[in-house]
């Protein structure tokens, strides 16, 4: 039945290979079970229910991806987007309104995917601004990680300063950062998850976290979703503003598209024109995941680049995704373990994710100032203005200005002018 449904022979794979690939993908993604609740709890959301929501939404959407598209792509609450949720939107409007923003952006994403408008947007928005957005988010999330670790602290004279690296929590974060970095350098599968767990073990010996006293401290029943499920504040979300809403939508769409194409290239799924068959279906699943995630109480659910880990192990069908989703469901029963993981152990993972996302800089044409300047502003504004929306707005506002001044206005798509006007309104409203 599995062979017939997932077309395993046609795809040059078998059940054993797909299971191993699914386990590999889960191992590389499982860190989100600890990191996402830790980030969203900074917005006032309860840790336990958020962990449950993270696992449930990842399981549902990943299994749906496997069954509907027959691709080995896995999904979960996205890094960067969860930081924007917790540190840019929730402090202003509350986490309920932030969930509303995620829900609305997911509905819009779904409609754009259904009607095929996403391809048009992809062609209209400058490639360098897409790359800059990824790099800027990476810098922003790494900055948050350094702050959470106590490595970078506020200073009244210089705004920022180096923290006390000898304090136990900060020292633990520094150790964790190098543990994960070494594992990544050695190309160990699941480096971030292993690094978080090793750092947690070290925290026991440093007296930061109490030793578990029994199996009940590791395995147990998951926390209920009651405190967060259906807690959407849609009127509050609508009051936040267009640019913030667009920032969620923009990042979700183009992060998903980039991940799908990049992973598909690795798996040799692309056709002769470099297109992914059934990309529309994959984008629809991603949009459904965002909507479902907001309903159960987590930030934007998106396709994970860690899917390439399973692909590298030979995963070629939706069975890989189904296995990964089932493991996310099983992870619900290790909820007590998440409570043992200190924030000092998850903060280094944010820095490492920032390193990976900064790779977008490599594709920016810095030899062309009309491309370099808007891209640079996009990257710079995100951490310094502490807002992904402000970074995107700075890039879209400056792009047509410098192009027009250089006599190259024909290079600017009319849709970019619309976004520039929206960005101007965002800054002055």
End-to-end separation in angstroms reads: 58 Å
How much of the residues is beta strand, in percent?
under 5%
Cα-atom radius of gyration = 21 Å
Low-pLDDT sequence parts: none
Helicity level: 55-70%
Largest sheet: 2 strands, antiparallel
Inertia-based shape: globular
**Total helical segments:** 20
The SSE order reads HHHHEHHHHEEHHHHHEHHHHHHH
- Strand order, main sheet: write it out: 1-4
Give the total of beta strands: 4
Plain-language structure description:
By secondary structure, the chain is mostly helical. It has one domain (2-213, 228-428). Helix content is 68%, strand content 3%. The protein is built from 20 helices and four strands. It has helices at 2-6, 15-29, 32-41, 47-69, 81-93, 95-114, 117-124, 127-149, 168-185, 191-205, 234-240, 242-267, 279-296, 307-312, 318-330, 335-340, 343-357, 369-384, 388-405, 414-428; strands at residues 75-77, 152-155, 159-162, 301-303. A two-stranded antiparallel ribbon has the order 1-4. The chain has a two-stranded antiparallel sheet with strand order 2-3. Helix 3 (32-41) packs across helix 4 (47-69) and helix 5 packs across helix 6.
């Amino acid at each position: 039945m599995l062979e017939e449904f997932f077309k395993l022979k046609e795809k040059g794979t078998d059940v054993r290979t797909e299971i191993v690939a699914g386990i590999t993908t889960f191992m590389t993604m499982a860190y989100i079970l600890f990191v996402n609740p830790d980030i969203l709890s900074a917005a006032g959301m309860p840790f336990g229910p958020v962990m449950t929501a993270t696992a449930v939404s990842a399981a549902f959407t990943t299994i749906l991806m496997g069954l509907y598209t027959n691709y080995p792509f896995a999904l979960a609450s996205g890094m960067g987007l969860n930081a924007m949720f917790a540190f840019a939107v929730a402090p202003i409007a509350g986490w309920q309104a932030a969930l509303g923003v995620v829900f609305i952006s997911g509905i819009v994403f779904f409609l754009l995917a259904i009607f095929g408008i996403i391809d048009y947007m992809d062609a209209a928005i400058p490639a360098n601004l897409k790359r800059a957005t990824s790099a800027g988010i990476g810098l922003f999330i790494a900055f948050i990680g350094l702050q959470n670790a106590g490595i970078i602290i506020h200073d009244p004279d210089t705004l920022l300063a180096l923290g006390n690296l000898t304090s136990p929590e900060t020292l633990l974060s520094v150790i964790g950062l190098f543990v994960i970095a070494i594992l990544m350098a050695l190309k160990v599968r699941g480096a971030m998850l292993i690094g978080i767990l090793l750092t947690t073990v070290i925290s026991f010996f440093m007296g930061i976290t109490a030793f578990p006293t029994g199996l009940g401290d590791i395995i147990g029943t998951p926390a209920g979703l009651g405190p967060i499920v259906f807690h959407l504040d849609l009127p509050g979300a609508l009051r936040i503003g267009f640019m913030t809403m667009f920032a969620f939508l923009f990042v979700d769409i183009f992060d998903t598209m980039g991940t799908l194409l990049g992973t598909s290239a690795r798996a040799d799924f692309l056709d002769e024109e470099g297109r992914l068959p059934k990309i529309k279906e994959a984008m629809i699943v991603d949009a459904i995941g965002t909507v479902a995630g907001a309903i159960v109480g987590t930030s934007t659910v998106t396709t994970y680049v860690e899917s390439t880990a399973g692909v590298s192990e030979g995963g070629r069908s939706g069975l890989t995704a189904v296995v990964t989703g089932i493991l996310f469901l099983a992870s619900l029963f290790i909820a007590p373990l998440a409570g043992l993981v200190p924030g000092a152990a998850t903060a280094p993972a944010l820095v490492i994710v920032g390193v990976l996302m900064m790779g977008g800089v490599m594709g920016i044409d810095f030899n062309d100032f009309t491309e370099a300047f808007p891209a640079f502003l996009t990257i710079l504004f995100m951490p310094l203005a502490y807002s992904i929306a402000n970074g995107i707005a700075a890039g879209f506002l400056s792009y047509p200005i410098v192009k027009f001044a250089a006599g190259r206005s024909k290079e600017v798509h009319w849709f970019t002018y619309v976004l520039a006007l929206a960005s101007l309104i965002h800054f002055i409203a």
